[in-house]
Amino acid sequence: MTRFGRMWVMTGLLLGLAMPAGPARAQEHAPAAAAQAGGHEIDIQHHIGDSHEIEIPFVGIYELPRFAPIHVGGLVIDLSPTKHLVFMLLSALIVALVFVLSARSIAGAQARGRPATGFAGAMEATTLWIRQEVILPTIGPHGDKFVPYLLTLFFFILAMNLFGLVPGGATATGNITVTAALAIIAFLVIEVTGMRTLGPKGYLGTIFYRPHGLPGGPGGAVLKVVLLAVLTPIELIGKLAKPFALAVRLFANMTSGHVLVLALIGLTFLFQSYTVGLGASVLATGVLLLELFVAFLQAYVFTLLTSVFIGLMREAH
To answer: Which of 58, 87, 122, 191 has its CA 20 to 30 A from that of 229?
Structure first.
């Protein structure tokens, strides 16, 4: 259980590489677009997109500070904080605090010779279940060294997903730059694992692949060259398809639910009917409950697939 206290380090790594890009210029004017929308319209893009504003329930809109952009050659880098960045920082802070405090509570309970109870006990049980039932069976022997990273990945994504269900909150995983950064980190972990486990020759065999058992002689040599030319691009595409699938799956699932809820709520304004409004509210509530399940499911799927890809790379061919 000493891994609990080290998980904030992995959270910092994920956080640093997953910072969302600044919103597009059209999104910066989203409040104006929302204000100009008619009484029968709802601006979905304003609610799901990134911006330099945070909506605080019952208080109003808080404008985040803006910094002068940095010019590096012809590249303009905007380091101004955005809504998604703020909630990503909050997610990282919550994950770090939860596990540091849980680790202290569990260590204190163990020192007294008692099992952990309450919230700390629940976190311990959840962590052990993910480790024993998800990570180790898919990675295989000696998979313990990947446990801190994968546990951090699960709870960090889960926290970002859940923030999107809080009034005034935002889903950072609904930003493709965030999910792409998480997928790139996973891709680097997978490939570096392959290099260290298989060695240079074995790792190159996962790119320049030839099936074993091919016949010898001139005909076999020609067949090897042909298969090598055909299978090498397929192997490269397969390597790139893994992070692409991780990024798009998480982004699409977390965005589609919010769009559906806002579309259902928009029916009330469109028809201006109490009957339609009641039906739309019931459906939107059902979708929100489904989104709560999806928030856990997508964190689980991202962690599970990353574990599977690491295990496949360690046992490549």
So the answer is: 191
